[in-house]
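dumping the sequnces here before i forget
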Amino acid sequence: MSLISVEEALRRVTAGIRPLAGEDVPIEAAHGRVLASDLVARRDQPPFPASAMDGYALRAAEAGAGARLKVVGVSRAGERFDGILGPGEAVRIFTGAPVPECTDAILIQEDAEVIESEVIVREAPRAGRFIRPAGLDFKAGETQLTAGTRLGPREIALAAAMNFGSLPVRRRPKVAILSTGDELVLPGETPGHDQIVSSNGVALAALAEAAGAQVEDLGIAGDTEAAIAEAAGRAEDADILVVIGGASVGDHDLVKPALERSGMQVDFWRVAMRPGKPLMFGVLGPAKVLGLPGNPVSAIICGIVFLRPLIAALLGASATDKPSMMRLAADLPANGERQEFMRARIVETADGPAVIAATSQDSSLLVTLARSDALIVRAIQASPARAGETVPVFLFSQVLG
Ligand code: AMP
Ligand code: MG
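..and the predicted 3d for all of it:
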């Protein structure tokens, strides 16, 4: 089977996916979830004309410089002034408080002098200034958040202000993660002479959770088809099964045959990318299966490039990761037959921030990955790129956030 492009692979991974069912969650638990339907404002905000400053509510026509007005009451946030203002009268008012109906201006306290129960205008206020009209922020009936929006602190604030105590969100995709390899032990265990610590399981779990999934860690399976099939079989109700390692074509690469024996239909298993060529995708019952290469950097990059979009598709998320364009701080060589994702740092230059590729792009180097800020995307057959040119980059702060 020949290599397929990253674009084609991604198209196949997300083809025909319908978003998972919706469920209601308390707004306190909605952070990171994706809206399943539009949210229509249930009220005006502010619900009444409100003062934007501390000062005095009065009639602009009566408040020329030097005018004296009698302060006859108070309007504070939570308790409005209910009375009627007579001529030459004003009301003490605080930020957020309802502006009395018969007034049209706020004399801010910095422009006022107070003598006993009177206020003297130092600088004449303008009608309407420092008054937020009802519905300035949003009005009842307006659709202010749409299905597919991921709920961060800002969206949660808006939904709360619209008076939603619970929110309709997509069910979180269940992602089962299986690491494979006789050489692996779990983090914190005591490795034998020829063993290494499995970093991919926890890394991909963190990546999937950040993308909005719920993770079941299936642990480590040894390098036999039976062990892999048995462990994968425990992922019964998973929407996505991620199997790490054993994905290339060597004696110990058993994932594909093991899962095929369990009924997996393979879609593709080789992608023209570096790192990450031995990337497998298939379907096993209701689950999508992603077989990721074992090298730690490859596994994480394939997680960014394929697992995140797959999770986003199941969530019906409207925003997907898009590379940004950044200037190169140093030249890059021409690229070959595979799309490359180069670990890179962002550096400050005289012309502003720019990216510089790490010296070694070895896919086993976790230190380089941890110290990088971005992945530079190099197209197949890209010509050499010069310092100062712009290139597409995925910022880790976005794609792992
Ligand atoms: P494989 O794809 O199984 O041939 O693995 C390629 C390389 O990645 C080998 O050096 C493995 O030891 C390493 N590797 C595989 N799985 C993991 C894992 N879960 N954590 C860290 N390294 C791994
Ligand atoms: Mg292996």
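The pocket of magnesium ion (ligand 2) is lined by residues 180-181, 245-246, 252, 294 (CB under 6 Å).
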